[in-house]
Amino acid sequence: MQVLTEQLAVMSLPQGCGRIFHGRGGRFPGAEHLCLDWFEPVLLLTSFKQLSDAELAPLLQAVTHFWQMQRPTETLNLVYQYRAGGQTHTQLVCGSVPEPHIVTEHGNRFMIHLLRGQNHGLFLDMSAGRAWVQAMAQGKRVLNLFSYTCGFSVAAMMGGAEKVVNIDMAKGALSIGKQNHQLNGIKNGVSFLGHDIFKSWGKLRKAAPFDLIVADPPSNQKGSFVATKDYARLLRKLPELLSEQGELLLCLNAPELDCAFLQQQVVAQAPQLQFIERVANPAVFADIDEEKSLKVLRYRISH
């Protein structure tokens, strides 16, 4: 594919991990279904539609050429994944994937699983959000809601947080989260709750108040969280968990819902929260319509 070849000619490998090519942002006509990521030492090519062998071959050739320009003396490790019709197919094209596979981001170490399904252990578009938390966390008590593999928690603790409470109903993700803390030498000050958030307000109230709350829920996961109905439920409860001048990072990764949706929910359900700013996404994730990209909104409570 010519557009991918042309873009890779001016790209370089990020440090540790990161997106290289973001076709999903719609800025490269004809390549909207393609992304290329770097999880050192492995490249991951993802297509959001099934490709024939004839369609895939020039893409693999373009990635191989890119690699030879970047690391001419090193073996190419390449994984290809396509997601289509509710199915996810993953294959190792060449080279190998280390086990365990550990990457660095902002100096922090994370466990990655490229050959298991769609979620690899670290969402790259949230890199700036984790950096923001790390920069703001000194001395803070942090609540990490929908914590997944606890990337925000690692960032907070490495930024000097006093304590972090992680909560997620997926115990397998929390188990990887514990490993991520161990990888970074974090032994104290962190707790992991494998609970449904909506059934655990009592536990969270006992652990409150928090100086910083991060809410990064799935946008449409039946049985867990559906943004169009559950963000309102969440926002009604969060202010009581915040300390005076406490801050809140509200995240939304649903292309069909814009910033205004989330802001209107806050006004209706938690008017004591004051909007501060939208945290910018990494530049490589630029979208022709930024309202379709990841939204990370910063709020502060005003008493």
Provide a descriptive summary of the structure in words.
- The mean pLDDT is 95.
- The strands form four sheets. A seven-stranded mixed beta sheet has the order 10-9-8-11-14-16-15, with helices on both faces. A five-stranded mixed beta sheet has the order 1-2-3-4-5, with helices on one face.
- It has two domains: 2-98, RNA methyltransferase domain (HRMD) like (Transcription Regulator spoIIAA, 2-Layer Sandwich); 119-301, Vaccinia Virus protein VP39 (Rossmann fold).
- It starts with a helix and ends with a strand.
- It has 303 residues and is α/β, with parallel strands linked by helices.
- β12 and β13 form a beta hairpin.
- The chain has helices at 2-8, 53-70, 127-136, 151-158, 171-183, 201-207, 227-237, 259-269, and strands spanning 17-22, 34-39, 42-47, 78-84, 87-94, 101-105, 108-112, 141-145, 163-167, 190-193, 210-215, 220-221, 225-226, 242-252, 273-278, 295-301.
- Helix content is 28%, strand content 30%.
- α3 packs parallel to α4 and α7 (227-237) packs across α8.
- It is built from eight helices and 16 strands.
Give the SSE layout.
Layout: H1 2-8, E1 17-22, E2 34-39, E3 42-47, H2 53-70, E4 78-84, E5 87-94, E6 101-105, E7 108-112, H3 127-136, E8 141-145, H4 151-158, E9 163-167, H5 171-183, E10 190-193, H6 201-207, E11 210-215, E12 220-221, E13 225-226, H7 227-237, E14 242-252, H8 259-269, E15 273-278, E16 295-301
Parallel strand pairs: 3-4, 8-9, 8-11, 9-10, 11-14
Antiparallel strand pairs: 1-2, 2-3, 4-5, 6-7, 12-13, 14-16, 15-16
Helix pairs in contact: 3-4, 7-8
